[in-house]
Amino acid sequence: MSCAAMQEQNPIVEARSVLASARRILVLTGAGISAESGVPTFRGEGGYWRNKSYQELASPVTFKRDPRLVWDWYLMRRQTVNDCRPNAAHVALAKWTEIARWTRDVQLVTQNVDGLHESAGHPDVIRLHGSLWRNQCTRCGKEREEKSLNYGQLPVSPCCGALERPAIVWFGEAMPTKPMAMAYLTCLACDAVLVVGTSGIVMPAAEFVINAKKRGAIIIDVNPDDDAVPAHIKLRGQAATLVPAILA
Ligand code: APR
């Protein structure tokens, strides 16, 4: 069936039908799935802090020059996310995945670092960009879970006694090998991709969708706005409403 034909019919009905018949499903999420939990997205008005863009702050160059500034931004984000709870989209996705995995391959790959998928009980989340709730040793690279919301002194690693950085993948840095490999293999094998809450412009996540489509996977996109996701089925609306509706 052509993209236009799929879109013409009720997109929710079409999306349900695709997800019901797919054997291998890649789910890709972005900041938009957490928007209704109160977590700012990047390219909306939440993308600036102290008049600096996300790109300037999430940068090894800025961290080397002013680690306090970068840590203050991440601590502000921890404080913001600390008051947020998973919304109906996170919860529906976690519950659906738990059941669907008895009979099919379903793998969540997220660009988010807020930890809300994990808080919703989602099994086995592949995090492409790291976690707000982990620190990394700048000397040996070892990571540890960390929930502090404030640092009087900048954090020092217990392993090496070196300055710690947020365990986040910054612009210009290499992607984490294992999550990338797992996400890539999933994108090669999937026959459907459910994309929720991403502008679809940041690589490599955007490329997973393009590659999956090239191989014949059906792409479903949930976003209130038009985005760069090359979807067959476009569900224009809020994740917390539409995700439970298509997974019901
Ligand atoms: N439901 C679904 N989608 C939503 C909602 C909502 N309630 N609210 C906003 N959105 C959509 C926006 O329309 C936008 O297309 O979520 C998308 C968020 O896009 P971005 O802010 O660009 O975030 P994301 O796509 O996750 O960015 C990818 O870029 O800045 C880097 O590392 C950062 O992981 C991030 C990556």
Written overview of the protein:
With 248 residues, the chain is of the alpha/beta class. It has 2 domains: 1-38 and 85-129 and 174-248, 3-Layer(aba) Sandwich (Rossmann fold), CATH 3.40.50.1220; 40-83 and 131-168, SIR2/SIRT2 'Small Domain', CATH 3.30.1600. It is built from 11 helices and 11 strands. It has helices at 3-8, 11-21, 32-35, 54-57, 60-65, 67-82, 88-100, 116-119, 177-189, 205-214, 239-247; strands at 24-29, 48-49, 52-53, 105-110, 125-127, 130-137, 143-145, 164-168, 192-196, 218-222, 233-235. The strands form 3 sheets. Strands 5-4-1-9-10-11 form a 6-stranded parallel beta sheet, with helices on both faces. Helix 2 (11-21) packs across helix 11, helix 7 runs parallel beside helix 11 and helix 9 packs parallel to helix 10 (205-214). The two termini are 23 Å apart. The model has no long low-confidence stretch (mean pLDDT 93). It binds adenosine-5-diphosphoribose. Adenosine-5-diphosphoribose (APR) binds at residues 30-32, 35-36, 41-44, 54, 111, 129, 197-199, 202, 222-225, 227, 238-239.
Outline the fold blueprint.
Layout lengths: L2 H6 L2 H11 L2 E6 L2 H4 L12 E2 L2 E2 H4 L2 H6 L1 H16 L5 H13 L4 E6 L5 H4 L5 E3 L2 E8 L5 E3 L18 E5 L8 H13 L2 E5 L8 H10 L3 E5 L10 E3 L3 H9 L1
Parallel strand pairs: 1-4, 1-9, 4-5, 9-10, 10-11
Antiparallel strand pairs: 2-3, 6-7, 6-8
Helix pairs in contact: 2-11, 7-11, 9-10
Bound molecules: adenosine-5-diphosphoribose (APR).
